[in-house]
Amino acid sequence: MTKGQAISLQKNDGGSLTAVRMGLGWQAAPRRGLFGSRTREIDLDASAVLFADKQPVDVVFFRHLVSDDGSVRHTGDNLVGGVGQGGDDEAILVDLGRIPVHIDQIVFTVNSFTGQTFQEVQNAFCRLVDETNGQELARYTLAGGGAYTAQIMAKVHRVGAGWNMTALGTPANGRTFQDLMPAILPAL
Amino acid sequence: MTAELVRGQNHPLSQARLEIRVSAGTPVVAAATLGDENGRAQSVEWVAHPGAPVLPGLEVSRQAAANHRLAVDLDAMPAAVHRVNVLLALPMGVGGPVSFGSAAVPFVAVTGLDGTEVATYTITSLDAESAVVALELYRRQGAWKVRAVGQGYAGGLAELLGDQGLPQAHQLATTINDAVVEGLARSVPAPPPRTPEGDRSRQTATSALGPDQSGSPYGTQGGATGPYPAGAPGTQGAGGPYAGTQGAGSPYSGSQGAAGCPDGTSPTDPSATQPASPAAPASGGPIDYSHPRRQNGAPPPPPPTAPPAQPGQPARPVAGDATGWSMEERLYNQVWGMFEDLARSTAAYRSAVDFADTRLERELDQVLSDPRSRIGGQGDAAREAAQAKHVQLVDQAREALERDLAQLTAEADVVEPALPVAYARWDNPAWHAYRVPMEMPMALRLGDLQLPESDPLRIPMLVRLPLERGLWIDSGRTAASDGSFVDSHELRHLAMESAVAHTARLLAVHPADEFTVHVIDPAGSGAQALAPLVRTGVLATPPTAGAAGVADVLARLTQRVDLVQMAVRGGAADSLPPGFDTSQQLLLVNDFPHGFDDRAVNQLRYLADEGPAVGVHLMMVADREDSSAYGPLLDPLWRGLLRLTPVPEDHLADPWVGHAWTYEPPLVPHGSQVLEQVLAQVAAARAKYR
Q1: Burial of B246 (0-12, 13-18, 19+ CB in 10 A)
Q2: CATH 2.60.60.30 fits B3-186, yes or no
Q3: For a disulfide at B230, which of A66, A85, B36, B207, Cβ 3.0-4.6 Å?
Q4: Which ranges of the sequence are coiled-coil (chain B) (predicted)?
Q5: CB–CB contact A68 B397 (8 Å)
Q6: ipTM over 0.85 threshold
């Protein structure tokens, strides 16, 4: 999946998805030099912002793990990454059927809380998984090397009765999702 | 006292008529061999097994099941019999596990006819064995004893029987297995639940299947009292103490699809009451990770799960559809799950409606501020469009909420009747079948919670026991949510009545000797409300009146808290004075601060802060205004107590979203005698205990 590409979350058989998971995984880049074995801890945080008509209504991040309505759940903060070695280090579960009717877009973001840029992160990816059967619907590799600390990954938005996902991949800078708001708004 | 036996340990048996209960995670064959003084079975007639289930003084069930009840009458044993070996074996050729190592750990209990456990034994450390001698009942100097044996045989039943001295062991093992396979073919798929209540509700269910089940293999499980006539209401009373619990006449067992057991110890397998649904997945995983001693008797049976839903339809709810070690814990978790779901669904609805309102306002503002809208009908059209959008969104939100509410209501309809007494409303029939429990429950129902959107759905308000903080029944003037005027005198009386109902419930759900209630009623104004407690004699001492009495009670409880704290900190819990009453204490205070001097107030605050950790609990019936002379000094006391009201009021917040929930006190139905009946039983049990 590349920037700007949109995929529909309708299943092939016509039924729509009921639950999706946005997974985020990364590994810290080993530092070369005298203490080469020492890796620096990198804390990436996944957040989901719920929008109603372009206004933020609720946010799910490491300090608010469940949206008030219970439809979006964060599995918890991972401070170091690399736990899954290819699996998800942080995940946000979205129960599409339970999202309040006025919410029409959900934007997923990744921030580097510890301030390292993505140049220092290895194998960072963000993926969308059909939670009911574990099938990967879309995978977006964080194009490493950029000198920025955040990325607006993707948005899931209502189209008719179903949902679509659009990959955004917009780089930005910020410590938490609040710093990203100006960068998110043009993407809505 | 139940003796938890370890391998090789023995325990005397004081009764001759016993039941041996077996629970395993998977269907097993239960059999018994009789032995002479040398421990040998003299012939195949000395073996009770599914093909020949009845011997003098001994009866086993006719087929393999995950739960068994074997009836034993030691007095009826022939004189030549010196030993009774209770065997368990895995049936062969039926697709189940082939060794005990891959099945859940079996558990056996020797119980009296009234269901009280004499000795229990969890058969751990089995591996490749497919047959095991679980227990041995043996004569020693004219008296019978039980020993935990746990001897397994990798060669199965044949090897086991051969070891008992039977030359025809192989032939007999084949006979037994054939009888079992035949029995399995006849039976309904699910194993019978363990306790008698479950057994009965199951009987109802099986009889509902059709008359051909009358030869049901469970017919022999009635033990010494004889087979229960399937589904006949007359079975109530046959087996003793459980009579009258969810029996054959239970309104739930047939219709609701999930007849829970009021004591919460035994889940009813859903497939038993829903014959049309496919069988529940086979119980027990390949490996049992559970700690054998941390179980409540039996390895946890698989939770009842909702049958697969029709496409496009939500699954039909089932009571106990949550995680937990016991049915009680599952129901507790399920109720909290319903609480959270309702809070969140309502949050979604409110948030959508709020958004619709703000959007409407904004759009109307825009229309007003746009000069073009003043010309012609444009403004009106825009206004109408905004209104229509608003209505549409609110309707959608309402629809989503209705969908969730319908699901939760359906769940509440099956969960509520299945609740054990500690969780049940006073009008639940479980209370009419009340018996003094052997164990403290996990939690207690303090009332009902609801939101305006969710009416008439009520969520039970369950709090964990022992209470972590005191209760404050507010007798002060409150904004009664129904708007009706309740005068101050009446409110005080209602508060006291409500406190008495809470106290009675606390007394009822604790074992007879484990909960003591002290009452301080300085002016005697609560005498009328306290009458049920006083009359039945469940109080430790009559209600205390006057300042001297207040000081005395507080001094004693303060000293107690101090003593226990010292003992706990010093790690010397056994150095408490002899005769020290170890039960939980509840102090019910009416009319605070009447009769309290400064010293007493301080002692009360000390009890409120330090008491709960050492089993001294506080229940205050008070109007905060009465103690306004103390100024803000008492604010921490009030904040530290859980405030309840005698009339419905919206003052409780949920932990997730913080809605204001309307609390409704648990009222005893008008004219019902259930409170007095329950207290009478409590009083009788306490009298017996002393």
Answers
A1: buried
A2: yes
A3: B207
A4: 383-411
A5: no
A6: no
